[in-house]
Amino acid sequence: MKIGFIGLGNMGAPMAKNLATAGHEVIGFDTAAITVEGATIAATAIAAARGADVVITMLPNGAILRAVAADVIPAMSAGSVLLDCSTVDVDSARAVAEQAAERDVMALDAPVSGGIGGAAAGTLTFMVGGSDAAFDIASPLFDVMGQKAVHCGPSGNGQAAKICNNMILGITMIGTCEAFALADKLGLDRQAMFDVVSTSSGYSWTMNAYCPAPGVGPTSPADNDYQPGFAADLMLKDLRLSQQAASSADADTPLGKAATELYRTFVEDEDGTGRDFSAMLPRFEKRGAAE
Ligand code: NAD
Prior knowledge:
The protein is an alpha/beta fold. About 50% of the residues lie in helices and about 15% in strands. The protein contains 12 helices and 9 strands. The protein has helices at about 10-20, 45-50, 60-70, 90-100, 115-120, 130-145, 155-185, 190-195, 205-210, 230-250, 255-270, 280-285; strands spanning about 1-5, 25-30, 40, 55, 80-85, 105-110, 110-115, 125-130, 145-155. α1 (about 10-20) links the parallel β1 and β2 (about 25-30). α1 runs parallel beside α5, α3 runs parallel beside α4 (about 90-100) and α10 packs antiparallel against α11 (about 255-270). The chain is elongated, with a radius of gyration of 20 Å. It starts with a strand and ends in a 6-residue tail after the last helix. The mean pLDDT is about 95. Nicotinamide-adenine-dinucleotide binds near residues 6, 8, 30, 87 and 234.
């Protein structure tokens, strides 16, 4: 396929490289001067998009996605697909899909989980919103860039799935970290805590697969001085999107709200920037009940 790829950052560049390596013709564009092995670099987003079967975007946020989409959709051919893999707000995803439909361009919102490692290895998971026809066209590309693509329903539902998942993840990580900090103060050994919880009803991905306590459970960012992994800043971004969606949809998400405020404090007022999101554990360790 001929693929326009806009946004060649930490995630976009390795995804574009994998598509080129798989034999697709990739024409990339980024506002920063970035080159990608196997891809041609265009001078503008419009030039990257013109004549493409699929235009992939991997951009920082919904406002930038809306601006790029407004530029490239008029240059895209009828029947082509605009595949946004960024994590953005549900409303932006749906607005872009409507704009695309006016030009007979099919839109998919397909945010990913798996991070930079998954992008490089081609093992991302895609959560996809949009039509069956668009999903079928993009499927071979999901196979190259990832190991799984779940079609979640119409436009916006991919973003909805992503932020609901990550809201659970943020809440669960906080719960796991505060339980470890409480266990410490109660004199319960961390290994014993892990052995019990990981096989009891408190088990979770954050405990069993990504344990925030160093030296306990499988190897995780905690064993590497909390280098990300999944940065607390990105968790804060996703939690904020969950709260934007909750407000827009009139949903009551009190724990999502509390998790957002805790990660905001951690990232903006404490030392959380650039650390893994599991570094909530050393944060709780240092604190007492009154704080
Ligand atoms: P990044 O900042 O490394 O890359 C974004 C790229 O977009 C940059 O290279 C930037 O120059 C480019 N860009 C900005 N404005 C542009 C414009 N108008 N036209 C063209 N290019 C433009 O970010 P990233 O880590 O690659 O993340 C991209 C998206 O993926 C985000 O939405 C993020 O939330 C999501 N995501 C990231 C991770 C991760 O682990 N990094 C994991 C899952 C999802």
